[in-house]
Design a protein that fits this description.
Helix content is 32%, strand content 28%. It is of the alpha/beta class. The chain has 2 domains: 141 residues, P-loop containing nucleotide triphosphate hydrolases (Rossmann fold, 3-Layer(aba) Sandwich); 69 residues, no CATH class. Helix 4 crosses helix 5 and helix 5 packs parallel to helix 6. It is globular. The relative contact order is 0.19. The mean pLDDT is 92.
């Protein structure tokens, strides 16, 4: 039986005092690939923020890997986040640093100290996304798709158990979106759990996976043909 890596029971999610999602019940097992869909403002990003503790869990039960979201202490949040690789729509690369130095910044910030080990790790993750030859480029020298590949590589630096991707193809053209999703599929095939918020229904139809929909402050599973 597959191991549960995320369990939410009777969870209510709030932002600035407003109910965003109510009575969320969700179980995710190791190695799943899950889409979260819904209109802008429907709660997709709020759900992901709750998972990596950017929003506190104040009502309901939530366990993700070995962490209890309801009782999580602030000093434990960095340790929780090391379990995740987070990919954003707008890449969030440091514009004044090369790809290599963007990676070094993350490794140093998360406790790495051996330069040779850091260089080897950077080469490894860039190779996984076919960006090894771009290590010395600046972000502005890369296309949107290349920047997102670098962002995915950055998310892999600490061997996360989860990839949380918040609209990772939102700023990309259809062909590039497909290429980025292929990278996420390859990472999922290596055993990583992927949760991806998206409004790109063309990708859902091309690559069907379990799909959850946020609508009317609720979240529920939908079958592909009705999304």
């Amino acid at each position: 039986m597959a191991q549960s890596v995320l369990s939410l029971k009777n969870v209510n999610i709030y932002q600035e005092g407003k109910t965003i999602l109510s009575d969320v019940n969700l179980e995710v097992t190791h190695g799943e690939f899950i889409y979260i869909i819904g209109k802008t403002g429907s709660g997709k990003s709020s759900l992901l923020k709750t998972l990596y503790a950017d929003l506190p869990l104040t009502e309901g039960e939530g366990k993700i890997v070995e962490f209890d979201l309801a009782t999580l202490k602030e000093e434990d949040i960095p340790f929780l986040r090391r379990k995740f690789g987070i990919v954003f729509q707008d890449f969030k690369l440091l514009p004044d640093r090369t790809v290599q130095d963007n990676m070094l910044f993350v490794l140093k910030a998360t406790g790495w100290t051996d330069l040779a080990e850091m260089d080897a790790k950077i080469e490894e993750v860039l190779a996984k996304v076919n960006m090894k030859d771009f290590a010395n480029q600046m972000p502005h020298q890369l296309s949107g798709g290349e920047q997102q590949r670098v962002a995915i590589a950055r998310a892999l630096l600490n061997d996360p158990e989860f990839i949380l991707a918040d609209e990772p193809t939102g700023n990309l053209d259809p062909q590039t979106s497909t290429e980025v999703l292929e990278v996420l599929r390859q990472i999922n095939a290596l055993g990583k759990t992927v949760i991806m918020a998206t409004h790109d229904y063309a990708l859902l139809m091309k690559y069907p996976y379990k799909t959850l929909k946020c609508e009317d402050a609720t979240i529920f599973e939908v079958v592909q043909r009705t999304v």
